[in-house]
Design a protein that fits this description.
318 residues; alpha/beta; seven-stranded parallel sheet; five-stranded parallel sheet; 11 helices; 12 strands; globular
Length: 318
């Protein structure tokens, strides 16, 4: 079986699992570069029977699946991947499988962005390297209000850390109850109230019809001019044009962003020109521990498939 491993940006995929244990039954090839052009991607993958994704970096729509006659197995880290047309894969008799993922890395990164914003860590790092000393006046998080949009597994972890820092934690989502919020140490408030009260708003929602564009110009206008926005979920939850305007006009203090649409972020993107943003390249899940777990289970899934079995299926072929 020929196996393609896509979007291996760091060039580490082949070092994080015992791929040699599949020899000679499978032959792996990792690609570090990212291809957006569907025709070029189809040419690259034409001979492969198995394609391993890394989350949603490379979408797999019907048009691409239809151009890959040899494809039999598609594996994605995680138990969901909105960029795969699972229905098209099922029609083409392509087995789609997932893996487990660790539940904490994205919550940790969210706090990295929050602290970087409050204490101007990236700006001070650049200043020291340029020969300057103590150029900004930071803020402490103790006693501030943390507003969480979404209080599922990730949001709850962020809430617990906020409480440990001595913050007042408030939360909102469409289905959140006061009881569930209290379990995470947060108080349920209305959406408008959250944006008006929070010193930092952190987003922890799954992208879907109800969450797309949920944070727009109206929500950003309600925020304090001293408040920050952090997004480690999905870029389309926030109206990008409205966010850029709010940041450019200093109507909010800054934003910590780990997700963009599309990705990778273009080198001339307006967000990169702003001095009140902290930008990371979708690092939420990108830890060695998470990669070892994901690629290890990818290897298990390939071995099982060769043996006529299916591990962690995301579709049913009948």
């Amino acid at each position: 079986m020929r196996v393609a491993i896509l979007d291996d940006y760091q060039g580490v995929a082949l070092t994080l699992a015992d791929w040699q244990s599949l020899h000679p039954r499978a032959q792996m090839q990792a690609f570090a570069d990212h291809l957006d052009d569907l025709a070029a991607l189809a040419r690259r993958l034409h001979a492969f029977e198995c394609v391993v994704l890394m989350r949603e970096r490379t979408p797999f729509p019907r048009e691409l699946i239809d151009k890959l006659p040899n494809l039999r197995l598609l594996i994605t880290p995680g138990q969901r991947n909105a960029s795969i047309d699972v229905a098209a894969a099922t029609e083409r008799k392509v087995q789609v499988c997932g893996t487990d993922m660790l539940p904490y890395p994205t919550a940790e990164l969210a706090w990295g962005l929050i602290l970087a914003l409050f204490r101007h860590i990236p700006a001070e790092d650049r200043a020291v390297r340029a020969g300057r000393w103590q150029t900004t006046l930071g803020l402490g998080v103790k006693g501030k209000t943390l507003g969480l949009i979404g209080l599922g597994k990730l949001g709850a972890q962020v809430a617990h850390i906020g409480k440990a820092f001595g913050m007042d934690v408030i939360a909102w989502s469409q289905n959140l109850t006061a009881e569930r919020a209290a379990e995470a140490g947060a108080a349920l408030v209305g959406k408008d109230d959250l944006f008006a009260r929070a010193d930092v708003v952190s987003i922890h929602l799954v992208l879907g019809p109800r969450s797309r564009g949920l944070v727009g110009a109206a929500e950003l206008r309600r925020m304090k001019p001293t408040a920050f926005l952090v997004n480690t979920s999905r870029a389309p939850i926030v109206d990008e044009a409205a966010l850029i305007a709010a940041l450019s006009e200093r109507r909010i203090a800054g934003a910590g962003l780990d997700v963009f649409e599309p990705e990778p972020l273009a080198k001339d993107h307006p967000l990169l020109k702003l001095d009140n943003t902290v930008i990371t390249p979708h690092l939420g899940y990108v830890t060695e521990e998470n990669y070892r777990l994901a690629y290890g289970q990818v290897l298990e899934a390939i071995r099982a498939f060769i043996d006529g079995k299916v591990l962690r299926p995301l579709n049913q072929l009948g």
